[in-house]
Structures are given as C-alpha cells and as structure tokens.
Amino acid sequence: MPASLVDRPQPDRANIDRARVLGHFRTMARIRAFEEAADQALKDGHVKGAVHLSIGQEGVASGVCANLDRGDFITSNHRGHGHTLAKGADMTAMMAELFGRATGACQGKGGSMHIADFQVGMLGANGVVGAGIPIAVGAAHAMKLAGDPRIVVCFFGDGAINRGPFLEGLNWAKAFDLPVLFVCEDNGFAATTRTRAVTAGPGPAARSESLGVPSTPVDGNDVVAVDAAAAELVARVRAGGGPQFLHARTYRLRGHTAADPAPYRPAAEVEERWLDDPIRRCRDLLALQGMAEAELDRVRADAVAEAAAAVADGLAAPHPDPALAWTDVQDVDMAEPATVGAGR
Amino acid sequence: MPASLVDRPQPDRANIDRARVLGHFRTMARIRAFEEAADQALKDGHVKGAVHLSIGQEGVASGVCANLDRGDFITSNHRGHGHTLAKGADMTAMMAELFGRATGACQGKGGSMHIADFQVGMLGANGVVGAGIPIAVGAAHAMKLAGDPRIVVCFFGDGAINRGPFLEGLNWAKAFDLPVLFVCEDNGFAATTRTRAVTAGPGPAARSESLGVPSTPVDGNDVVAVDAAAAELVARVRAGGGPQFLHARTYRLRGHTAADPAPYRPAAEVEERWLDDPIRRCRDLLALQGMAEAELDRVRADAVAEAAAAVADGLAAPHPDPALAWTDVQDVDMAEPATVGAGR
Amino acid sequence: MTELTYLDASREALAGEMRRDPRVWALGEDLGRGGVFGQYRGLAEEFGPARIADTPISEATIMGAAVGAALVGSRPVVEMRFSDFALCAVDELVNQAAKARYMFGGQGRVPLVVRQPIGMWRSSAAQHSQSLEAWYAHIPGLVVVAPATPADNYGLLRSAIRCDDPVVYMEHKDLWPLTGEVPVAADGGLVPLGRGRLVRPGHDVTIVTWSRMVQVAEAAAAEPGAPSIEVIDLRTLWPWDRAMVLDSVRRTGRCLVVHEAVQAGGFGGEIAATVGEELFGVLKAPVRRLGAPRIPVAYAPVLEATSRITAGQVAAAAARMV
Amino acid sequence: MTELTYLDASREALAGEMRRDPRVWALGEDLGRGGVFGQYRGLAEEFGPARIADTPISEATIMGAAVGAALVGSRPVVEMRFSDFALCAVDELVNQAAKARYMFGGQGRVPLVVRQPIGMWRSSAAQHSQSLEAWYAHIPGLVVVAPATPADNYGLLRSAIRCDDPVVYMEHKDLWPLTGEVPVAADGGLVPLGRGRLVRPGHDVTIVTWSRMVQVAEAAAAEPGAPSIEVIDLRTLWPWDRAMVLDSVRRTGRCLVVHEAVQAGGFGGEIAATVGEELFGVLKAPVRRLGAPRIPVAYAPVLEATSRITAGQVAAAAARMV
Ligand SMILES: Cc1ncc(C[n+]2csc(CCOP(=O)(O)OP(=O)(O)O)c2C)c(N)n1
Ligand SMILES: Cc1ncc(C[n+]2csc(CCOP(=O)(O)OP(=O)(O)O)c2C)c(N)n1
Ligand SMILES: [Mg+2]
Ligand SMILES: [Mg+2]
C-alpha cells in the first residue's frame, strides 16, 4: 500500500503557488455564486425541479478538478454543480439547464440532477445514489482497453458507500487495474440522516482498502490540501498505478435540497461549520499571503456578476420546442406519432 | 474487535468429544451419500434440473449447524444440500424434491436450487448468488424486533462477496447489531472462474471487518475446527454480540454443477485436494482416537443405505397433480383460469 | 369521517395498522424524520425507532431484508422513496418476494408492502417520474395497488398491510396534497383489494383508469360537450376488477383506457386486449388507449408536458369514439 | 450458407463484429471458458482476455460499467447469463443505459447490447426461466430483440452490435441446439432490427409470435385439421413490425398472439390492443392471446408443463377462432 498522505507534512503554506490558489478561490467563488443564484432563482420560481447545493463542499471539486485535463472524465451524483463547473463546463448553459431552456447544457431535458457536459468530459450527474460509480469504472475500463491515456474521476457522497455498486465498482476497478480516482465527499449526511448512524465499521477508507484500493484522507475544506492530495493520486493513476481513493471530509452547509431547512441538526453546529467554509479559509490564506482584500473582493464580485448574467441569459433563453421531447430517445423507429399525447 | 480465533490453540485433538465428532462424521457421510446418490440419479435421468454438489465442503455445513438449535434459521445458496441436511431436514423429502415429486420438501416446485425446510428453520436455497444475504439479515432483524432469541446463519460462497448485497447486508447487520452469523465458504471458485482472479483486495475477511463485522478464519475442511469456531461465534451472536463472520477455506472437489467436468483446472490439483477431504480427515481423526474402522464403515454404509432408500422412495413417489401448479402463488384472486394453458 | 390529505391518510392507515398489529413495522431511508414526503411524520415518536427504522441507502437490502423478516413472521412496510429507486431492488422483489412462497411449496409467506411513489411531479425528470405498474402486474405473486383518493389511500393501505401476499403499493406523488373525506377508525375504512370504484356513471364511453389519471378523467367527463362518460378507478391493477369493467363496457359499448405510464407495453394493453376479446361484437368502437409517449420524462416543463395526459386530450379521445 | 446451431450462430456473429470493429468487446462471468452455455467458446483465444473479459459476479456493475464504457466510445456486449440475473442490474439498464442519451440532451450515446437468455429450459424453476421482454419493450430508449432461428441469431446480433441504441437481446435457452442455414460472411447476413419474418403464409388466422414459440406455432400450423395459419415471427419486440402484422390480419381477419411469457401484462397485450384498435370492423373474430398462466415457473416437469404453451393448445386456439 502506498504511504498515506496523512503522514506527509502539510503543503507548505509559506511557499504556496499563489496563482494556483487564486485559481481555486476563483473556481470556488464561481461555484458558490452559481449555487446562490440558482437558489434564488428557485425561490423566484424559475427552477422547477429539485436542486442540491454543494455550498461548503467547493474545496473538493476545485482541488480535484484542477488536476485534470479537459479530456479526462468525471462522473458525479445529484450534487454535481461544483464538479461540473470545476471541470470547465459553461456556467450559462448550466443555469439555462436548471431553468429548463433550449440553450441548457442538456437542452433542458436533464435539469440539475442530470447536468452533463461531454465536451469537457463531464459524463453526467445522476439521480440515483451510487449509480455513477460503475459508470466511471466502465469509462476507465474503456480507456484501458483502448490504450487511451485519459483518466476518470468519480465523485460520490458518504451515503453512497452503503449501496452495492460501491463494493462492486471498487472491486472491479482494482481487479482490472483501471485508471480511476474515487472521491468520496464525506459531508456527514445522507439527506436527513447522519450517515454515521447507518454506516457500520470504520468508514469509507477502510472499505476502499478492503477492496484493494488505497485510500488517502484529506480535509476537504482545505482546497490546498485537496489539490496536493489529488495531484499525487492523479499522478499515480496516470502512471498506471491503478485505482485510488480520496476520502475528503467536508460539511454540507445547506439543506439536502435547496428547499430543505434541515431542522434535524442544531443551528449551532451549522454556525460553527461556517467558520470552516473552504472559501473563507482559502481567502484567509490568500490574504495572509499578501493578496489585497480588494482583489479578492473583485474575484467574488466577478463570480457573482457572471452568475447574475447566467440567470439573465437563462431567463431570456427560449423554452425548448416541444418537438424536442421526441429527439435523442432512440434511432430505431422514432417516427413521430400520429397524435402528440396519444403515445405509441 | 474480539480476539481472532486464529490465535487460539487448535482444539485439543487428544481431548476431543468423540461422540460429537462421530456426529459430524455421520452428518458429513449423510451429505456425501445424498449428493453421490443425487449425482447418480441425475445421470440416470431422474433429476431434471441443475444440481450443485458440495462434495468436499461438508465440514463447513456440519461444523456450523451442529451449534444451532432447531428453531434457529439458516439461509443458503445454490449449493445448499449440505446446509439443509446438517440443519436437520428430511433426506427423503429432499431427494423427492430433486426428483420433482409431490412428496418433495417443496412439493416439487423448487428443486435443488430452492430446497427449503421451514420446519427446521431452513429458509431456502437460492438461485441468485448473494440473494440469501439480505434475507438472512432481515430474518435476524425480525428476531431482534420481536425480542426472539433465535439466531440466523447465512451461508454463501466466495463468489458472492463481489455482489452488492454482500456490502449492503453486512453493513446493515452491524448497523442494527443483528443476531446473524455469516459463513463464507471459500472454495476458490465461482463457477469456472478462479475467484481470486476477479476479487480485489485481501479477501472476504478484510471486507467483513471493514463493515464492522469481526471475521474469524477457519480451515473449513477440519470439521472439529469449524465446530469450535462456530461454537464461539454462535455464542457471541446469541449473547447479543452482534453479527459475526466465519471465513471457511475449503475446496469444491467436483465441478460447478454435477454435469461440469471442470476441465479448467488441472487433475493433479483436484487429486491433491482429495487428500484434504473433510470426511477423510474426520475419519482419520476418529480412527486415531481408537474408533473401530468397522464402526466408521457402518456409519458410511448407513448413510449410503439411507440415500439409496431416499432414491427408491423418491422414484416411487407420485408426480405432483398438475393443479398444484396453481397453488401457493397468491391468495388475492387466484381463481383457476377457465382453460389451463390459456393464462390470465 | 375526517378531512385528510392523501398523504396524511396513508400515515393514519399505517399508524392504525401498527397499533393494531405489533408485527407491523416500516423501514426505509429518513423515516425517522418523516420520510422524504412527510408520510411518516410523527410515527417514530409514537412507535419508536425500532419499528420506524431508518435504513442506510441500500434499496436492495431494504427489500431483501423485508423478505427475510416477512418469511419469519413480521409484516414489513418497505419505503422505496421513489418507485425509480426500486429498480435497485428488483431481484429482491421479483425473484425473491414474489416467488418465495411458491418455490418453497408454500412453506413460507411474504406479507410485505412495498411503497413505491410513482409519477410525474414538479419537473423531476427521467429518473424520478416513472410509473411502472405494468411491470409488477406481469409478475406472478405480486398484488399491485395504485390509490387515487385519500379514502382509498387509507383503506387500501390498511388492506395491503393485512394482505398475506407481497403488495406493490404505488402512491402518486402529485396526489400527496389532495384532500378528501376519510373514514378513519380503529378497525374500519378498509377497501378491498381487487375491487374497482365507479367514480361516475355515464352511458357513452367507459373510461378505465387509476392513480392520478382518475382526476384527469373526471375533469374530462365534466368538460362541456363531452359525451356521457362513465369513469372507473381500478384502484388495484392486479388483480383488476374485470367484472366491473366488462359490465360497464357492456352497457356503454365503448372503452377508453387512460394511464400516465408509457402507453407502449403499459397495463392498458392488458385491459384493452381483455375487453376486446370478451366483448367482441358488443363494442361500438375499438377500445382505445391513451398513455404517455414512449419517451423518457424530460425535465423542462414544456417538454415534460409532452408526457402528461390532459383532460382535454382525454375528452377529445372520448369524443372521437362516439 | 453454413449449417450452424443457434448457439454457434451467435458466436460467429460476435466474432464477426469483433473482427470488424475493434471497439466491440464482451464482458460477463466465465466468458474466458466459453460462457455458461458455450456461446463464447474460443473467443478469448482469438481476441484475448481484455476483449473477452471475465468479470466478477457483479451484474449491476457489469451493466453499469458497460454504460460508462459505451458513453466514451466503446461498444460493449454484456452477458447476463440468465435474463433472471439481469434483475440485479435494472437500475443500470433502465435508469442509466436507456435514459442517458436523452437526459444529457443527446451529448452521449449508449451503444451496448445486453444478452439476456430467456425461457424455460430443463426444469430450471422460477429464478432461471423468466421471459420479461414485455418489461423492456415498455422502456423508452431500449430496443428489444428475440431471435428464433440460427440465421436470425446471427443477423440480428450483428445488427444489434452495430446499433447505436442500447439493445436488450434475448436468446432462448431451449433454442441453443437448433440448427439451420446461416449466411455467414465477413459483412453479410445482417437482419434489420424492427422487421418481422413471414414464417409461413396462411389465410384463416395470423399467429404473431417470437422466440421459441415460432417453432411451436409452425408445428401448430402443420397439425392435421388446423385452419390455414399464417405465422409471423416478430424477431424484434421493440420496435415491432406493425405494418407486417396489420397487413396480414387485414387479409386473414383473425389474429392470435402467442408467447411463452406470462400472458397477464405480457407483450401480447400491446399487439392485441393495437390490432383491435387498428382493424376494428375488419376482424372476423376477437384477437386472442395465448401465454403462460400468471404463476411462477415450477421445477417439477409436470408442473413446469403448466407454464408451457404447446402446439396442440395453439392449434386448438386457432381452430376455435375460425
Ligand atoms: C438509490 C437511491 N436511493 C435514494 C435516493 C434519495 N437520495 C438522494 S440524495 C440522498 C442522500 C445521499 O447522500 P450522500 O451520498 O452522502 O450525498 P450528499 O447528499 O450528502 O451529497 C438520498 C438518500 C436516491 N437518489 N437514489
Ligand atoms: C446473480 C447471479 N449471478 C450469476 C449466477 C450464476 N452462478 C451460479 S453459482 C455461481 C458461482 C458462485 O460462486 P460462489 O458464490 O463462490 O459459490 P460456489 O458455487 O463456489 O459454491 C454463478 C456465477 C447466479 N446464480 N446469480
Ligand atoms: Mg453525504
Ligand atoms: Mg466459490
């Protein structure tokens, strides 16, 4: 088993690559701004379906995806905005998707829970917990079969480790020695349930290791640490080292869905966790490194403006032509039915 | 985690309970005789469906079930004759079941792969690998809910540890702290595949422990060792110690099904493994303890005679009345259809 | 009589059965905090966490454990959250629950209820909107129920819990807030499985439907200029009330089957085929079906609407038959 | 033309496509030793263990991994061994494979074939005998194929592998040894998806059927005293060849649908409903269906037989219609 990153010294905060950290700050600010805007749009009635916010978890998406090339792939779960933006997807198309518009990333057919951007290797969010795991493994399998150097990252939550595909997928990845990095975003909750209460044994890392996939723990709210850990794991995967597992501890600062006030946890707990907000921590670090507050404010303001523009764009975008409902189903025999509404 | 049995001294062979070991010898001889007779009956055309023989694995069934009360439950897999007999089921009804007769354990509706005897707590073999795991867990859950002291033993193979229900079931058992003993019969094969080739990580024990279920290794072909290990684990389970896992190494001396000549493994390997036959080992031990060869021969002969009688009985037994095909489907609306063959 | 929502009616029904029979318990994700729609609100407080069990996200084992628990005498009520997630537990339901009694020659029974909320609901898209009742009606051993009203969600759930067969119980997500009179009583209000409900009489066309489409059919029947429509709510899909349907169509001479599920391969085919076979010569028009097109349910409201049957479409289809 | 078994025909088809297209690969349990029925014999030797991949017993991930592999450009052929085991992988097939292209607005395709051997075979009992083609025909996005002859198992499998949609490919276990002429050729012998086959002409009754029941229908048609029966082998269940069926029934005026699957909720309902709707007034008799009773398949041959449709039953049903 490779040495665990936990024993390594913390990335040297004195000598950090300021431009890179600023990049993370920008990515995280964009994710936050996107989700805050989506949340508001939901309240304003512009988003019809469920939205799961990753507010507080942006460090994982940003830290991991910064180590991927555009051609690399990711799969995600229901809480996928952060992964998608961090992988380079277009914010305007994403917002339009949440609004169900023709210009949406999925032409309005998917919504938040099925957001995808294949152009940047984002193979899709998923409405079924754990379902992205075999899909990621299969994509990695195809890469290995084809001798294609691209790798796959698979994001899922701590709730997903109690579903069968977790075991099957990790076993498979190791049995075939596939180029895939599993990233478990351990935010302590599965919907309204404290994951710990229904999860036996020592947790995600032990499960992963029991399946032959080495696990690395990381503070998911420390984007610099996530970046460093992911850098090493991605390098291992690229070098043919087989599947790797990153166990990122984080916290879901908002409810399960945007509409969930999360009364099942004390307000004090959440308040305390806000102090650990990855964006705040990153900002503090940059400020400590001498970055001007004004510059940081501008990054944030730019992100907010970008999200606002995406909202404006989305609201102005056309609704899809209803005929679009019939496309991309299947090629074999998708003649239009005689009467719309009278199915065939 | 409780101390692993692996560190304990071997059960003292000088002071073994001879009557108990003889009981194992008898149980194993009965299983062997049953399966040899079933195998022959299959060749003779009396058994129509697939039959999976547990020849070489009898030590696990006997060693474990000797520690159960009649009221305790077991679930099994496709290779379930041994478990069923060891749990106390009637051999004649089992053979008749393989023959598809009205007097069969399941009235001829199940066959070998669905053999069951609820009167002795045998909740069913299963045609789906791994499917017995959640069922066993659920039975244990019901016991705990009802404050019923009975416990559940769940038998499955090393191939089943690659299916999702393995993870889900063990996690569940520990999360709810249920009275269930998992018994993994690790015979090295899943059908024609060497399980190792498709199984990542250190194996069943590590997986179990990663799910919080303590694992105990045992030489499955040493019935005395299995008995001792099972005794301790069953005691722990009965005492409310939560789920336990027994990892029994054994070997499938015959093909996957009775019809499988198993050309995918060298004859020499199989020959060598016959030396480790649990019945032979038990016999040697008893002989060493001074048991007369003749007595041992008689046990074997009795078993063979019992199996032969079961075959004779089965052949003489009536085929089920075709109308029986309509019973035990469901109570709500099972009126007979107007025309048999014209389904409704 | 009490005025209750469809949602609260189901909760009262479950609570009533749990009070009545200590063997009844419920299991599923987040039940301790009321379940995803609030159908279990307050039940953990009354019955404790053992009988309102919070499970891991392990659909296969939620269902499989219920099978084992049922086989040894308890009566589990399984919550699948969205019927779509039950697709993670099909072996357990179809290969195990539905067949165990039969395969074992009647030695065991599997008295479980699996609640599978179905249907389109607020832009839930392709993985949270399916109605697969046709699948389960096709599986020997399963009873399939799809209540359309608060009273039925009360009475049918109670009957389902008392049923010794495994019951697939499909509530419609869009009906949760629907209110109506419910005869809540310690041991009353039961609705028998397998019996349809005559929603309204009519003499031109019989509409056979269930679940959310009952309201739509009623609305269609009430449209000005619509023919005289008799609406039958099947309530139970298996067994379905053939006698009620055939009696009605014998009178009207016309039958239109309406369901939210995809029309192709939907349960409407079974009904249409049966009516066509039994009432050949009596029919004044071919039996028609109105179901969703064979496309996944899309997210955008304007696309999602393509999959949704409207009262206008139903009325038009009925009118075309006369 | 080569004389091949149904089993060997499928192997030739897969080998042919694997030679033609390096993106094609197969995955499933025991494939390296030929697969459970020998359908893959020799393929690992020719194509190597990477392209004939031996997998763990992980049906959900066999299917799910194939989805991922297909989304990034490979063309997996998934072996499920018995269609019954595919019930462990329904989320992956129905929620993922069938919907991915749609949900993602056409950004990706899922060109996979999932082989699901169906049907009763040598007392295999309730968990190894099912025919659930009706399920998959009900799912938007899936193509459903059920070949009845060696030539079709060759030509349809090749077409299925070339199809860019996910295809549920259902071979019948009882047909493996059936022999027939097969036009094996590097790039020939393809049979188009969605087209039926006129097995034999007739003028009294049209029998619409597929898979193993094609032989049974042929035998029924050949029975002395049987009416003049036209037999149509649908070959593909979705899309099914409505034009061929309707043309035929327009001529014969009578339609009998025969399938091995349980009749209740079977795909016969879809066909009967469609024919009844389209040819009302043309029909000389009600459309009839002949399928298995709604009971699990039992083990004992004498009980198993209860679920099996015979030529005699088919002939009698046809005769009753005339
Ligand atoms: C198979 C399945 N079961 C249940 C759900 C409902 N559900 C959606 S998200 C969720 C919690 C997931 O928790 P986790 O994996 O930790 O992700 P998080 O929401 O914390 O990011 C649940 C239960 C689902 N979508 N799919
Ligand atoms: C879900 C499922 N997949 C595949 C099969 C086919 N199958 C039957 S037994 C078996 C091998 C099982 O291996 P193991 O669990 O080690 O048990 P053993 O046969 O060695 O006793 C397989 C693949 C099945 N019955 N169920
Ligand atoms: Mg979580
Ligand atoms: Mg094995």
Describe this structure in words.
The complex is a heterotetramer, with 2 copies of chain A (about 350 residues) and 2 copies of chain C (about 325 residues). By secondary structure, chain A is an alpha/beta fold. Chain A has one domain (about 10-320): Rossmann fold, CATH 3.40.50.970. Helices cover about 40% and strands about 10% of the residues of chain A. A 5-stranded parallel β-sheet of chain A has the order 1-2-3-7-6, sandwiched between helices. A two-stranded antiparallel sheet of chain A has the order 4-5. In chain A, helix 5 runs parallel beside helix 6. Chain A is globular. In chain A, about 60% of the residues are buried. In chain C, the strands form 3 sheets. Chain C has a 7-stranded mixed β-sheet, with helices on both faces. In chain C, strands 9-11-10-13-14 form a 5-stranded mixed β-sheet, with helices on both faces. Chain C has 2 domains: about 1-180, Rossmann fold (3-Layer(aba) Sandwich); about 195-320, 3-Layer(aba) Sandwich (Rossmann fold), CATH 3.40.50.920. By secondary structure, chain C is α/β, with parallel strands linked by helices. Chain C is built from 12 helices and 14 strands. Chain C is globular, with a radius of gyration of 19 Å. In chain C, helix 1 runs parallel beside helix 7 and helix 9 packs across helix 10 (about 265-280). Chain C has helices at about 5-20, 45-50, 60-70, 90-95, 100-105, 135, 150-160, 215-220, 240-250, 265-280, 300-305, 310-320, and strands at about 1-5, 25-30, 50-55, 75-80, 115, 145, 165-170, 180, 195-200, 205-210, 230-235, 235-240, 255-260, 290. Chains in contact: A-B, A-C, A-D, B-C, B-D, C-D. At the C-D interface, helix 4, helix 6 and helix 10 of C face helix 4, helix 6 and helix 10 of D. One thiamine diphosphate (TPP) sits at the interface of chains A and C.
